[in-house]
Amino acid sequence: MCIRDSPSENSPSVVINALTQMKDSGFLGNGSRRGGFYIPDEVGLFAVNQQVYRTFLSKKPEVDEVADRLQFALIRECCEMLMDGTLASASDANLLSVAIGFPESKGGVLACADEMGIDRSLEKMNGLARAFGASLRPNQLLSSMATNKQNFSGLTSSAIEVSRKIQKLTLHQSQKK
């Protein structure tokens, strides 16, 4: 993607912010005075522009940010597996999350979402999706649960089925456009 092009709506805001700051600072790419991500070295080969790297790309994420991204990615994946039938219940998802290393003392990743509150979980995931991309966007199940004031501990197979139907309808409508 050229810095002069507009990023897609699925581009994480961290990318959009970095590219915008680079553009505003005169880092417009190979043909510009300041170069871009890469600049030619002494022998004409391209090397990483260290000024761009230090200024725009070397931010170290906070521990809490990394933990949130991992936790909410796992919540999203568990919701997807509930929606596609790979998992039959929230209890199965909690067991799976503990089996892959989520702290047993927390009861599983969906139990943590319940404890935080589904509305708050949805809000956090929407914020993470804006910052880091569509892979952290909440899926239909979580959105439906928030709308209907449900939680994972009381999640029924019929509620999952309703979310599947809404997701299919939404997908069908977006394909018509």
Question: What labels would you give this structure?
Answer:
177 residues; disordered N terminus; 58% helix; 3% strand; mainly alpha; two-stranded antiparallel ribbon
Number of helices: 8
> What form results from the Cα inertia axes?
elongated
The main sheet comes to: 2 strands, antiparallel
Radius of gyration: 21 Å
Low-confidence stretches: 1-7
Percentage of β-strand residues = under 5%
H/E element sequence: HEEHHHHHHH
Distance between the termini: 25 Å
Mean pLDDT: 86
| Order of adjacent strands in the largest pleated sheet | 1-2
Walk me through what this model shows:
There is one protein chain. Strands 1-2 form a two-stranded antiparallel sheet. Helix 3 packs across helix 4, helix 5 (109-116) crosses helix 6 and helix 7 (140-147) crosses helix 8 (157-176). Strand 1 (38-40) and strand 2 (46-48) form a beta hairpin. 23% of the residues are buried. With 177 residues, the protein is mainly alpha-helical. It has eight helices and two strands, in the order H-E-E-H-H-H-H-H-H-H.
Lay out the secondary structure:
Elements lengths: L12 H12 L13 E3 L5 E3 L1 H8 L5 H22 L5 H10 L9 H8 L1 H15 L7 H8 L9 H20 L1
Antiparallel strand pairs: 1-2
Helix pairs in contact: 3-4, 5-6, 6-7, 7-8
In short:
By secondary structure, the chain is mainly alpha-helical. It has helices at residues 13-24, 50-57, 63-84, 90-99, 109-116, 118-132, 140-147, 157-176, and strands at residues 38-40, 46-48.
